[in-house]
Specification:
By secondary structure, this protein is an alpha/beta fold. It has two domains: 2-202, Rossmann fold, CATH 3.40.50; 211-288, N-(1-d-carboxylethyl)-l-norvaline Dehydrogenase, domain 2 (Orthogonal Bundle). Helix content is 42%, strand content 17%. The chain has twelve helices and ten strands. The strands form two sheets. The chain has an eight-stranded mixed beta sheet. A two-stranded antiparallel ribbon has the order 1-2. It starts with a strand and ends in a 15-residue tail after the last helix. It binds ligand LNIPZVSO and nicotinamide-adenine-dinucleotide (NAD). Nicotinamide-adenine-dinucleotide (NAD) is lined by residues 28-34, 51-53, 57, 114-117, 121, 137-139, 161, 163, 255-256, 259.
């Protein structure tokens, strides 16, 4: 761990700040998001440890990272395929894997949690060295609630990445009333080192993007559920009429319907019978081969 003095991003204080320089990163959860975060951190020179519950899952995570890197180098090294291969090799070498969370976090400057969206399971993760900053990638849970199981709330924040992580430029940096300025500055700076654009937000339900995006997705589901328009036409309408890269139903499948439906009792989130039915049938979207569409 080291400290650095740096300027923070546009929109934040312009005075010099003190932040922890992050070199060793542990990502807990090697699913869609964890693998993406590991890839981006390893591509920007960090030493990454990816943790999940089994070696089989971790093998799949590494395969996902390799597949995504191939797409990245196809463009980045279009004229130099050998340099592209070398880049992939180097990045993958920066990622080690582990099923033992306690040993994986020992030399970590930052731990990013990207496991299942379940408060109790997230709270159970914390036996961390004192200097380590802990950040959750939760989509819908309160950062304060997750942090409440620890005695280190000043070094606890939210680092909300977007799917697919290698392509999406935004990171939401979430501070609770207990998060220290040094932690926030470190998370903002880390996001920039990953070549992302950070925005900061209080620990409010849905942060910025999900607070605005999820109602749009849910209204699309209801339109379809009522039979007001076909699922194909709803998606075409939002792509061509609103300039969205994906239609809302395709995007819901892409995110995962279980993730979309992960906080159904929140008063700000009105679920739908159709969404509940698909989730109950295990039709979770792209990752299970079927959601609103078949893959
Ligand atoms: C009331 C409030 C309630 C709030 C709380 C409720 C709780 C529930 C919360 C649920 C929601 C959770 C959401 C989550 O927290 C936050 C999110 O992540 S939201 C999702 C954000 N993502 C998007 O919106 C994605 C939109 N889509 C796109 O940007 C694009 O479609 C795409 C994915 C980039 C793909 O691009 P396309 O052009 O469509 O398709 P291509 O396949 O041709 O790809 C283009 C280009 O990109 C390269 N590429 C694509 N994917 C990857 C990858 N994974 N890795 C590397 N490269 C990739 C591809 O190779 C192409 O490259 P090119 O050919 O151009 O060189
Ligand atoms: N899917 C999205 O579009 C998206 C976007 C932003 C944020 N998120 C958030 O990121 C987190 C992960 O989402 P995802 O889509 O990657 O889920 P996922 O189901 O693809 O991956 C979750 C991974 O966590 C692992 N895991 C579960 N419990 C664990 C534990 N105790 N220790 C170690 N690993 C464990 C699982 O084996 C799995 O590989 C969630 O909090 C979600 O809300 C998701």
């Amino acid at each position: 761990m080291a400290f650095a003095t740096s300027q923070v991003v546009r929109g934040f204080s312009s005075s010099a700040v003190r932040n922890v320089v992050i070199k060793n990163v542990t990502i807990i959860g090697g699913g869609q998001m964890g693998a993406g975060i590991a890839q981006v951190a390893a591509s920007t020179g960090h030493s990454v440890t990816l943790v999940d519950t089994s070696d089989d899952i971790l093998k799949k995570s590494i395969k996902t990272i390799e597949g995504s890197l191939k797409r990245v180098v196809k463009k980045k090294f279009a004229d130099k395929p050998e340099a592209g291969e070398e880049f992939i090799k180097k990045v993958v070498q920066n990622v080690s894997t582990s099923t033992d969370v306690e040993s994986a976090v020992q030399s970590s400057d930052l731990v990013v949690e990207a496991i299942v969206e379940n408060l109790k399971i997230k709270q159970d993760l914390f036996t961390l060295p004192q200097h380590t900053i802990f950040a959750s990638n939760t989509s819908s849970l309160s950062i304060s609630d997750i942090a409440s199981s620890t005695s280190r709330q000043d070094r606890f924040g939210g680092l909300h990445f977007f799917n697919p992580v290698p392509m999406m430029k935004l990171v939401e940096v979430i501070g609770t009333p207990a998060t220290s300025q040094e932690t926030l500055d470190s998370l903002l700076n880390f996001s920039k080192v990953l070549r992302k654009t950070p925005v900061s937000c209080k620990d409010t339900f849905g942060f910025v993007v999900n607070r605005l995006l999820v109602p749009c997705i849910m209204e699309a589901i209801r339109l379809y559920e009522r039979g007001d328009a076909s699922k194909e036409d709803i998606d075409i309408a939002m792509k061509l009429g609103a300039g969205h890269p994906m239609g809302p139903l395709e995007l819901a499948d892409y995110i995962g319907l279980d993730i979309i439906n992960s906080d159904p009792n929140n008063p700000l989130f009105n679920s739908s019978d159709l969404l509940n039915k698909l989730v109950a049938e295990g039709k979770l979207g792209r990752k299970t081969g079927e959601g609103f569409f078949k893959y």
